Amino acid sequence: MHILTSPAQLQRLEGILRKSLPLALPVFGAVLNINRGNPGQFEVLVDKWPEFGAVLARPSGEVASGDMGHCRRGVTWCPGTCQVCSEHPWVPPGAAPHPHPHMGTPLSPPLTPASSRLAPGVRLGSLSASHVDLLNNTWPYGGNARSRIYLDTILKRFPHVCLQDSSGQPVAWVLKDHFGTGAHGYTLPEHRRRGHMQVALTVAAQRAQARGFPTFG
């Protein structure tokens, strides 16, 4: 496997993967993040360049195994030949993160503004380090020290949307991860059936589009 380090190569790869959406989503988001400051400290590998058959996104510095079969998330995006894989060292096997807020056909027009749909007493806010335990306790794969570190990392490095009540306490949120996908979305039980998650997902999609990330609906 060959690590792509040239900005020109990474930009070219981004363009190639964009033409293969949505099948290339598992690695495309990682390439977008790398080309926009690399907040996740990831790297991209290909089996050869420029006519590659496989792409792997991983945390920088990991040793390449050469075995694409172990990837936790992979899709075939070139019929019969190309494999796109992405992985994170903590995400448990079988725990594929949620896809982009809307999956299906690419949306090119801007989404309808969501701010006008906020329920009375609810406002857009943000999460902080003091909320990591709340995130960890409400994540289906959380509740342990490793998941807490993972959630703390993505909270600090990647975009999120949070809805707060009048006292400033979180009621619903959506966190993005290293691959530009939804890592943790949740509405507190006492605040459900009020449309909070729909608003949070729409705001997250609007912000993703503004950064050049694709949104599907």
From TrEMBL:
EC annotation from Swiss-Prot or TrEMBL: 2.3.1.-
GO molecular function ontology, one term from the record: glycine N-acyltransferase activity
InterPro entries: Acyl_CoA_acyltransferase, Glycine_N-acyltransferase, Glycine_N-acyltransferase_C, Glycine_N-acyltransferase_N
Root EC class: transferase
Source taxon at top rank: Eukaryota
Annotated GO CC locations: mitochondrion
Residue intervals of the Glycine N-acyltransferase N-terminal domain: 1-71, 118-159
Claim: Cell membrane is one of the keywords in the record: no
Record keywords: Acyltransferase, Transferase
Domain (Glycine N-acyltransferase C-terminal) ranges: 161-216
Entry's family note: Belongs to the glycine N-acyltransferase family.
Name of the protein: Glycine N-acyltransferase-like protein
Organism expressing this protein natively: Drymodes brunneopygia
Gene name of the encoded protein: Glyatl3_1
